[in-house]
Amino acid sequence: MTFQMPIEPTTAPCFDEMNGDGGATRAVYSRIAEWLENSPPGLLDSRRQQAEMLFRRIGITFAVYGDKEAAERLIPFDIVPRLLGHDEWRRLEAGLIQRVKALNMFLTDVYGAQEIIRAGLVPGDLLFRNPAYRPEMQGRRVPHDIWTHIAGIDVIRVDDRDFYVLEDNCRTPSGVSYMLENREMMIRLAPDLFADHRVLPVENYPDALLASLRSVAPPHCPAEPNIVVLTPGQYNSAYYEHSFLADKLGVELVEGRDLVVRDDVVFMRTTEGLKRVDVIYRRVDDDFIDPLAFRPDSALGAAGLMGAYLAGNVTLANAVGAGVADDKAIYTYMPEIIRFYLGEEPKLKNVATWRCREPEALKYVLDHLSELVVKEVNGSGGYGMLVGPHSSKAEIETFRQKLKAAPEGFIAQPTLSLSTCPTSFPEGVAPRHVDLRPFVLSGADGVRIVPGGLTRVALKEGSLVVNSSQGGGTKDTWVLETDAATH
What we know:
This protein has helices spanning about 30-40, 45-60, 85-110, 115-120, 125-130, 175-190, 190-195, 205-215, 240-250, 305-310, 330, 335-340, 360-365, 395-405; strands at about 60-65, 70-75, 75-85, 150-155, 165-170, 225-230, 250-255, 260, 265-270, 275, 280, 315, 350, 355, 370-375, 385, 410-415, 420-425, 430-435, 440-445, 445-450, 455, 475-480. It is α+β, with helices and mostly antiparallel strands. Helix 3 crosses helix 12 (about 335-340).
């Protein structure tokens, strides 16, 4: 594939998940529509204020780097839930399982026999020049060939059936704490509405994560491996989540200074002496986990950790080097990757993408910048991207120069009409664009997905950027036992 026309026209009508294409309310949203119609004036605004107060009291914040005026922020929470019917979820779930299986097989191959490169399906230079590629892992086998134990797959929908994958997060995906806290908030603030729906639970996510982590422990481990969560520390933007997950898992939250490596074995310092560590759910990037192996100026990891890992004495989740599958240029090859390793057609669609490293695609992108979304292949958090229809001429010209200078660092996509969901504001309820990040857990004993995920919502009218760092909010995601609401 060298060049593609958009699979979705930029002027496509927007699909509303409650009202479909403008007709009658969809069955799955029938009770939500009644609830919104019958709620007295000010109720939703009051509930939103209560949610903000409770989140602030709990301490659910995230850091915004470089923002001196508001270094700690709350992610706005919307009281109107986002609903998926049973069949919708089953289709999405099957596609997620397929995709993550293929990603793990791809990573095993990339660091192993490299058959997909030899077959000419993925260019070798795209992998070996990728900053997330770790030559230290070449020829290494990770336990059970699982590289991305926790994956966050960002999906959108543009109609009543199809889900599209926007990107794959295979390194250290965040946001699961908000998925869990949002559910608790909805049960507290709208108990009657929740009781009117048969909502599948997400509260078992910590149990599923713990089971997955236990299943990938090194072979020397006893029946109960010692698991820890490794955090960069309290100044990290996701520190609340690290602390939250350690607490829910019932394991220790540690920083690099709490770990010591002796004879290629990792220990944790405790008041009772050193205690061996078998599995590390790490929220520290590759570059910082071991100053002896990567950045020598890192104070976030533990000296010798990489040696213990390569010796097979500790499991790191996610695996070192898994980030190569995060690359947005690699994303464009996912249909071929799924066919190559699984011999199946992709169950979830990719968004049509122009790889700017290819001259013909670059020419098209430069000629149509005002119509496209342009992203850095290694970008995240909504940074380093251009949304052409919503950008000024000056911003477009700045990106034009970036593309000409380093086209291999960018991909471009059509401006899809993301679906919308009803969202509450002080002045009333209005549709806003949403995406969804389900969390896929891979262990030696299989793949686990709790029904739902983190719905992110673009709170600005017309905006397609849902990232919290760019002003987006979140919703609770309800997957129903049936395809319609029940009274």
